[in-house]
Specification:
mainly alpha, 2 helices, rod-shaped
């Protein structure tokens, strides 16, 4: 919302500048330049914040991916252990039934 307001404000300022004759461009009000600089700094700071948030989210995603892979491996080991135990139990029962 804030960026939209800033963009709208910059568009209005741009339109004003378009209507100034070329020979008057050197006499542009310094407050307009200051507003542009201030808007640029605000946008730059917001960009840095968004960049930091993005990096944090990517790092979190990377860590979650590693944890999920570890859990997947652990589940596979448990599955194989269970299958082995089931097979051993069946073999044991079969041997006992043959006696």
């Amino acid at each position: 919302m804030f960026l939209e307001n800033e963009n709208s404000h910059l568009r209005e300022e741009n339109e004003k500048l378009k209507n100034i004759p070329i020979y008057d461009l050197q006499n542009i009000n310094t407050t307009t330049n200051d507003k542009i600089k201030q808007s640029y700094l605000i946008i730059q700071n917001k960009y840095k914040i968004l960049q930091q948030e993005k990096d944090s989210i990517l790092n979190t995603l990377r860590n979650e991916t590693i944890i999920n892979e570890e859990q997947r491996n652990y589940i596979e080991i448990l599955k194989r252990t269970l299958e082995t135990n089931i097979i051993n139990e069946k073999l044991f029962n079969m041997l006992n039934n043959q006696k």
